[in-house]
From TrEMBL, chain A:
InterPro entries: Longin-like_dom_sf, Sedlin. One of its GO terms (biological process) is endoplasmic reticulum to Golgi vesicle-mediated transport. GO terms for cellular component: cytoplasm. Pfam families: Sedlin_N. This is Sedlin.
Automatic annotation (TrEMBL), chain B:
Part of the multisubunit TRAPP (transport protein particle) complex. One of its GO terms (cellular component) is TRAPPI protein complex. Its main location: endoplasmic reticulum. It comes from Carpediemonas membranifera. This is Trafficking protein particle complex subunit.
Amino acid sequence: MSYSFVIVSKNDSPIFEYVLNGDASESGHLNQFIIHAALDCVDEAQASTTQWFLRCVDRFNDKSIFAYITAGLTRFMLLAEPTSSTSIKSEDAIRSFFLDINECYLRHVMNPFYVEGQAISSDSFREKVANVARKYLL
Amino acid sequence: MEKTLKKGRPDIAMSSFSFLFAEMLNYFHSRASSSDELEGRLQAAGERLGLKVLELMTYREKANRKDTLESFLSFISNNVWRMLFGRPADGLQRIPADNSYMILESVPITNRYIEAGQLNPATFITGIIIGMLRAAGFNNPVETHVWKKDESTNETTNVYLVKSK
């Protein structure tokens, strides 16, 4: 499996990006494009539920895009791409992944110096995301 | 060291809060040329808190997404108020005439030692409400008013008026 994870702020700009097992040079830009296109599907999906986890919102060939929305309308987008040897993780694993990411994100947002919509460049945040991703997605 | 995000005993001494709030007022006062500007700065300070408070509360209470203004305001006036001020607000009323809402509070924590005259310190709390509404995508304007409950006793209550868009 390879994954691309992006945090998109309320006003649709990406504020954090993380790639797990992926080859950024080859499909990175395509993945960004697919995730961006899936934002429209997030808008549709959030109208039909009051849950934060919106499940799989879009598919592109064999790639699936999962989404999670926070109370401040920040969106977590996860693009999962199966490789030949492994199949896709269950929705429950991805839900747990998002919930743990939400906690990391919340800790970052609670910082009094963090202003809404700012890009997240903290190394410790990246490390935490990497740990959570390894825990649930590998 | 990471502090827990779960509910603990969040009580903070009234004196500490009053000290910090008074310092904040002083700071803004020395930099503002009119009471309107001072209120604007107070409100802006509250707005920055809104997103943080909303994200934290939603995480703690494991609350679902609120898709109507009414359910969102009731979440604010109960759960959020209880977290910030230790008790729910004194009331949430809908004004059917123009579909706006009022959150009532007789003595806001910011006005405990300061009388609301030309300047209403509760503008800070208005800012928090605006910040939360904006974070959740509602964007309704909010005004602060002091409302005389009873002409004879001079009893007043503070009204946060959430106007319809």
